[in-house]
């Protein structure tokens, strides 16, 4: 099946389940988690994937997701066994 270009898709799970092109930036999850910063400010121009990145972080950590590990199979973050122990273990507030 051909991959589609998910123009305007901002939900990580939807991007993966619809098999749209996804540039793997999941290394951000490990870097952010290990940084121990009190505050993280993500600044990028419009349409640079800020909401998709936050959706990715939410889907990774959220205890509400039933298929967290499946959504991240084959991506960079899945190679980090210590990080994968945190997958689906945290309550997440996504506003």
Tell me the major beta sheet.
Answer: none
Order of helices and strands: HHHHH
Q: Could you tell me the number of beta strands?
A: 0
Strand content: under 5%
Multimeric organization: single chain
The parts where pLDDT drops under 50 for at least 5 residues are none
Summarize the amount of helix as a percent range.
Answer: 25-40%
Radius of gyration equals: 13 Å
Question: Which whole number gives the mean pLDDT?
Answer: 90
For the termini, the CA-CA separation is: 34 Å
Number of domains: 1
Q: Kindly name the structural category.
A: mainly alpha
Question: Shape, please?
Answer: globular
Number of helices: 5
Any key phrases for this structure?
95 residues; single chain; mainly alpha
What this model shows, in words?
The chain has 95 residues and is mainly α. It has helices at residues 12-17, 27-35, 50-61, 68-71, 81-84. The termini are far apart. The relative contact order is 0.19. The model has no long low-confidence stretch (mean pLDDT 90).
List the helices and strands and how they pair.
Blueprint: H1 12-17, H2 27-35, H3 50-61, H4 68-71, H5 81-84
Brief synopsis:
This protein has 95 residues and is an all-alpha fold. It has one domain.
